[in-house]
Structures are given as structure tokens and as C-alpha cells.
Amino acid sequence: MRKNLSLLLLAFVALVACSGCAHRNSSVEQKRVAVVISTLNNPWFVLLGESAKARAEELGYEAVIFDSQNNSSKETEHFDNIIAAGYSAILFNPTDADGSVVNVRRAKQASIPVFCMDREINARDVATCQILSDNFSGCVEIGKEFIRTVGREGKYAELLGLVGDNNTWNRSRGFHTVVDCFPGLKMVAQQSADFDRNTAMMVMESILQAHGDIVGVFCGNDAMAMGAYQAVLAAGKAQQIKVFGFDGEKDVLNAIKEDKIIATGMQSPVLMARTAAEFAHRYLSGDHDFPKKIPIAVHAVTRENVDQFLE
């Protein structure tokens, strides 16, 4: 009898212990944060995603990065899995300003807060907060540098990013706010290169075949700027055509120092990512009071000040 009671007691203790393990595992699962990035085929977005993940982990969460591969369908699949798995928050870099709205709305309906990073969605009532670069103002500064370097006359081209991304158009509008004030500057080509380096190189090669006399090219991000520069260099026009980018990638900073690229706009991916993670932590700790949008300043980087940014 005593032996049987001892066995029952041991079984009961084991059952309680397992129950405790299950409870702890459930608690850990409830503290998972999803980091959904538009593409990991670009070093800038890799930095954005890894910074968000690292800060979430510092704050005590399990964090997982999802790569949407610039594909809205892939992004939707990620949200399906994240919602079904019961993640606590989503740090989100959208693929499309309009198309991504439905995914964020579904997360909200599932009581999962979403914090947008860098790219915005065209809805004010679904994301908990959108932490965005001030792309327009940053490209106003790039436009000013374009005028200082290229001058007030000549033909130029523009490489656009993804047509469904608001950043593409905010950057373009900021640049044109300055450049369009000078009638002597004529834009002879404006084409999308999808924020991609290889695509930009091919698009630029095509532009140069039709407009070999351009004096400058404004690129909506640094990956495209590097691709455009490759095409310009291969065409033997590196001295004639001035290349301008936007993002602040290290490759472009080095190219500016070497007088290959004229200027870029320095964004703050680490700041945006860490802020998104910290806001998610505040939300999950009970603070639900956030502004709908927070702009992050962008600084123009040129040969004169590139050293301070490289440091």
C-alpha cells in the first residue's frame, strides 16, 4: 500500500511538473514577435530586419524574420501563418502601400498589433504605428545637390523603385520639387527598376542606348544607384554622368568617398527597427497610446561629409 501511494505521489508530481512545462512553453509562444521584411535581397532591408529582431530579443521576446521576397502573395502567406501561430506583435516592412492593408487589417482583427517600418500602408486606422523615413524632405536635399553638381541645364534620367511603394513616389516628388524649378533641366527617361541593382543596370543600359547625352541620373535607392553606376562605367561615361542614390548603404558611402557616386540620402534603418521593437514591447506591456506616424529625418551625404557617416 505504502509503495503504491509513493508511486501515485510521484506520478502526481510528474504530472504537475509537465503541466508547468506546458504552461511555460505556452507563455514563451505568446511572447513571439514576427519581423516581416519586404525583401532580404537587399543589404539595407537585411539590416532593418536583423536590427528589429535583435532589439526584440534584447527585450525578452522570441523573434522570427519572414522574407516576403517583394511578393504580395508571399507576404499574405506569412500573415496567415503568423496569425494562426498566435504571434504577439508584428514588426512590418510592407511590399505594397495598398495591397498590404488587408494583411494588417486581418492582424488587427486577430488582436495582433502591427508596427510598420520604413514603408507605409495607405490606411490610417489599421497599423498601431508607422515609423517612416522622411523621404520627401530627404530627396529635396538630394535635388539641391543635383542642381549644385549637374547645373541648371541638361538632360537627365530617373530610376524609380517599386511602383506600389509610397516611398518611390515620395522620393520622386521631393526630388522634382527642386529640379522642376529649372526649365533647362529635361527629364528624358523615367523608368522603374524595382529597387534592384541588377534590374537598374539593365534599365540604365537601355536608357543610355537612347539617351547617351544625359548628364545625370537620380535613383530612388542605393541598390539602383550602384547598378546605374555599373552601366555608366561600362559605357565609358563615368565622368559625364553624375549618379545620385538614396538609403545610405555602405557600398554607396564608399563610392561617394571614391568620387564614383555624387550623393545619397542617409536613412536610419537601425533607429526605425529598434523603435518598432520598443513600441511593440510597450504595447504588450499595456501602453496602447501611439501616434499613427512618426517621421525619421534623412540627411544628405556628399563627398564633404561622408567620413562622418562612414564612422
Instruction: Provide the succession of SSEs.
Output: HEHEHEHEEHEHEHEHEHEHEEH
Q: State the shape.
A: elongated
**Which structural class should the secondary elements be placed in?**
alpha/beta
Based on DSSP secondary structure assignment, what is the total number of beta strands? 12
Poorly predicted tracts of residues? 1-29
The major β-sheet equals:
6 strands, parallel
Q: What's the gyration radius in Å?
A: 24 Å
Helix content: 40-55%
Mean pLDDT: 91
Keywords:
single chain, 311 residues, alpha/beta, 6-stranded parallel beta sheet, 11 helices, 12 strands, elongated
Written overview of the protein:
The chain is of the alpha/beta class. Helix content is 49%, strand content 18%. It is built from 11 helices and 12 strands. It has helices at residues 2-29, 43-58, 72-85, 101-109, 135-150, 166-179, 197-210, 222-234, 250-257, 269-284, 306-310, and strands spanning 32-37, 62-67, 89-92, 114-117, 129-133, 154-160, 185-192, 216-219, 242-244, 264-266, 293-296, 299-301. It has a 6-stranded parallel sheet with strand order 2-1-3-4-5-11, with helices on both faces. It has a 4-stranded parallel sheet with strand order 7-6-8-9, sandwiched between helices. Strand 1, helix 2 and strand 2 form a beta-alpha-beta unit. It is elongated and about 55 Å long. The termini are far apart.
